[in-house]
Amino acid sequence: MKKCALFILTIVLNMGCTDRDDNLEGVHIRVKNESSVHFDVVEVGSSSKVHKNIAAGSFSKYLEYETAYNYSYINIIVGSENYTLQPIDYVGESPLKDGFYTYGLTISEEGEIELNFRID
Questions:
Q1: Distance CA 82, CA 41 (A)
Q2: Which CATH number goes with the domain that contains 105?
Q3: 70-85 mean pLDDT
Q4: What count of other Cβ atoms lies within 10 Å of the Cβ of residue 11?
Q5: Is residue 4 assigned to a domain?
Q6: Is residue 17 part of a domain?
Q7: Which of 47, 38, 26 is nearest to 105 (CA)?
Q8: Which of 18, 50, 55, 109 is most solvent-facing, going by the fewest CB within 10 Å?
Q9: What are φ and ψ of residue 2, in 5° steps?
Q10: Residue 50 and residue 118: Cα distance in Å, rounded?
Q11: What is the 3-state secondary structure (H, E, C) of 99-120?
Q12: How many domains, the chain?
């Protein structure tokens, strides 16, 4: 009886040992608001990829991207203010591999976006 219970316990524990990125396809990016102000809208890459209502210190949900890099075009809207980070190009950069990533964003006192890229 003890062997049967141990066998069942082993099966149950092994069923729960999968990572969220097992069999993952695509690049998934979320935004962390590392500033002290609420971000109403954050566009990452294009206006079709929008992260909304991100409180100070909070994360957005992950959005899937076909192609992304460790930096990107970013437009943050805070009230009536717009803050933009515009890369010139991606020459020499390698696209991100399938997985989960976070763009930690803050706005400097000079009004410039600072990006802190992390692999999750």
A1: 10
A2: 2.60.40.2890
A3: 96
A4: 9
A5: no
A6: no
A7: 38
A8: 109
A9: -65, -40
A10: 19
A11: EEEEEEEEECCCCCEEEEEEEC
A12: 1
Confidence band of 23 (pLDDT split at 50, 70, 90): low
Q: What is the dihedral of CA 48, 107, 119, 58, to 10 degrees?
A: -80
Q: Which helix (H) or strand (E) holds 62?
A: none
H helix or E strand, kind and range, residue 4: helix 2-15
What is the model's pLDDT at position 22? 55
Q: Is 33 part of a structural domain of the chain?
A: yes
Distance CA 38, CA 33 (A): 8
Non-local CB neighbours of 68 within 8 Å, separated by 6+ positions: 27, 29, 45, 95, 96, 101
Contact 42, 75 (CB under 8 A): yes
Please state, rounded to an integer, the average pLDDT across all residues of the chain: 86
Output the pLDDT for position 92.
86
CA dist 92 and 105 (Å) reads: 24
Do residues 76 and 105 make contact, with C-beta atoms less than 8 angstroms apart?
A: yes
Domain assignment present for 8 = no
